[in-house]
Amino acid sequence: MPEDRKPPIAFETTCTVAAPPDVVYAHLADPRSYIGLSPLIVAVDDVRHGHDAEGRPVADYVAVERFRLVGPLRWDNRIRVRMVSTPPHGPLVSEVRSPGWVSLRAVVELSPVPEGTRVDERVTAHAPAPLRRFVAGQARQVAAYRAAELTRRMAA
């Protein structure tokens, strides 16, 4: 099934964390940091590091999203992620491919501010019509949780 021709789901999230950009960048550039940084990610497997054609560091990995269904029933969704980073604090770009013809792109940019670091994340996602509302809701919830959890982690 091809991607829906509707406009992408798109939104931005911003937070300020109490840590310098290099600390925030190192944390976000490590795929294993996303365990718990997203409320759905319970595991990160098959991490492979390399470089793209432009020489930028790339991490390809599989993240396991755990959805609770009813009671003890759960569904583990294995998603493929490619994260391209541009050190020292350039954008971190994650391209996500999920089953069901769902794709997501997140671009994170860091800016130094007196309080630490401003973290701006732009998300665009595509999903077939039957999944759009679910994908949009989950993506927004995850982004808000991630901003709050990153703020908490960087304050520690």
TrEMBL record:
SUPFAM superfamilies: Bet v1-like. It holds the Pfam family Polyketide_cyc2. InterPro entries: Polyketide_cyclase/dehydratase, START-like_dom_sf. This is Polyketide cyclase / dehydrase and lipid transport. It comes from Micromonospora andamanensis. The lineage of its organism: Bacteria, Bacillati, Actinomycetota, Actinomycetes, Micromonosporales.
